Amino acid sequence: MPDDDRQDSMQETFESIPWERLLADPRERRRKMMAVAGLGLVVLAVASSLARSLWPVGEVERPVVTVADGVSVSVTPPSSPVTTRAPLSEADLMAAGTSLPLASPEGTAEWFLSTYFGSGSAAVDLMPVGLELPVVEPGVASFVDSVHVLETRFEDGSAAVVAVVRILADSGDGYRRPDPLVVEVDLDAVEGGWAVAGPPRPVAWDPPRADQTWGEVPPDVAARATETAGEFGSVVEVGLGRSGEGRWSVVVTIDLGAAGVWPLLVDLPPVDGSGVHD
Q1: Which has the closest alpha carbon to 141: 187, 107, 176, 98?
Q2: Rounded to two decimals, what is the model's pTM?
Q3: When you count CB atoms within 10 A of the terminal residue's CB, does the N or C end of the chain come out lower?
Q4: Which run of H or E residues covers position 4?
């Protein structure tokens, strides 16, 4: 075959080769790389799990922290991960509360009264063993607003706690706040704290009253009291006052806006170093 014919045949052959089929597709290359990377992550996770199960980590050495004055403190890391608990229901909280250590007679009395005049369910668990109270039909729904201890008396391993209980009660026409109850709770000292010895008893509480002299205030003192009280609200009325050591204390009725109208005590310093008004 002549040389010219051979060259023409080779050129035709090369021109007919499908070069676009022989070159690698970039999209196919990316898919292969992602598949290899995913397989590598799976192998790494399996290897890590096997390593933790076959070679457990030993006890962590306690770090030592040096604080002021050269004192070294050993810090103990937590032995188990911190977990959170689901919120407890009201029944669970009431049931859990009865097993708490009640180390003081005041705390025991406050907890007992808050449940006794409220739901009453937890109060049964705090009563003495064998004491059965009569079942009373709940004609009034009540909730305890607050309990405040007024007095505690101790005698021969026992205590008597006097407290005032404020209740919100609903007899069918909406909740109202009746007059506060003043009751006394007897408690016995037991191992680990104090135990309720019986139901609360009502007591007549007559708090002591200070023996002070209150009277009309001079016009200049009333003017000063009005000016001072005006910084807190609108002055409605200037009432009685008392003086001592050159100072005046005056009862001023002040309109506090959304907080209501209240008689409040306004203290006035002496005037010109003396300011004594007779």
Answers
A1: 176
A2: 0.50
A3: C
A4: helix 3-15
Q: State pLDDT tens for residues 246-277.
A: 889 999 999 998 899 999 999 998 876 544 44
Tallying the residues shown for the chain, one arrives at 278
**Separation CA 171–CA 251 (nearest Å):** 38
Q: Which residues contact 158 (CB under 8 A, 6 or more apart)?
A: 186, 187, 188, 189, 197
Q: What is the pLDDT of residues 20-68, one digit of tens each?
A: 555 556 666 777 777 777 777 777 777 777 777 666 655 555 555 554 4
Higher pLDDT, residue 40 or 182: 182
Cβ atoms 204, 163 nearer than 8 A: no
